[in-house]
Amino acid sequence: MKSLILFAALTGTLAAQPFSVLLRQLEQLPPERREALLVPYLQKMKTSPIIENDTLIHFVLYGRADSVSVIGALQHWAEPAPLAKVPMGTYSFFHRTETAPADARLDYQLVADGRYITDPQNPRITPSGFGPHSEARMPKFVPSPYLARRDSVPAGRVMPLSLLTGVPPLLARYYVASRPMKAYLPPGYDGLTGLPVVYIVDGFEAAEWASLPTVLDNLIHEGRITPVIALFIPPSARHVEYIGARTEAFAKVLAELIVPAVDRTFRTDPSPSSRAVMGISSGGHFALYAALRRPELFGGAAGQSSTITPRLRELTRRQAAANALPAGLKLYIDVGRFDLIGEYEEGRLDFLALNREYSALLSSLRIPHFYREVNDGHDWANWRERMPDIFIHFFGGNR
User: Which of 30, 101, 284, 381 is 20 to 30 A from 135, alpha carbon to alpha carbon?
Assistant: First the structure.
């Protein structure tokens, strides 16, 4: 990839001239005269992408490259979408215009001459399991107020945990004995009893990338939730445990080994209404599966952008037919309107369509649940924005 020229002196406010007008003017000029028009325009911008009229989003890059594309939530992370190229002599100006809801929050990357990069003119960077992403916030997006650390808020304690010894032989191959876990204990834990517990799969990523200890500190401090213990559980073999051949076995490990060990170790309330499990993507599948499989233990489950499988649907139908699900079971489901669509090991998956269908199935079986679609994608920054709502749903004032 050739070197890129970045926007210069990005200060000031949005240019009054519409972006479409700028493009027409550039097209009318010979390449060697375009830079004199473009650079002052770019210098008036604070950042990229350029957003106009609440719903237009212009992905742009000015530099020395042969081709530039964008890939992200708007492309369902499937295929990069090319930016149009406007030659300008030594350099080129690349642009692509999309529409997005006014309250959308979107991850994306640029692909410059085949290299995936964050947008060099966008200071907003979000974490992901595949490296950093750039973040676009549309004008009416309102970020969660619970994600940032506040000096005035007492902090809970996060401690490493090794709960399991002497794993039964039949379960040993499904559980790595040295698997680390972590526990969040709320501020003032030593003076508390009867605490609810939330079990979080993909737990280490959730703790770091979704800032969950900070989220819990803030929610507890404001009285939005009762003090709660959180157990962060990492996967050993993620796909097979959460959605594959070991799902049933890992649900058994959670129910029969991890939960009892937590209740022995900490000052918990062992009633199902004080116990929940949550996860994202295939971890969301596991969370829903585990709670539906063992409703006598888990009174709540949350799945975000969950992979919905025939196995989960069949379990749901079977438990409903057996009248095995208590009336107080709390299910939380959310999914992005720009979630993944593509070919996966399980076949072609459209996460939005599958979650809609699963919500409809729950409704048809008269299983109460909270379902929400958000203008976001299949990304950690999406999930962390909504995680405070999950804790409020489980452990808020309506408990």
Answer: 284
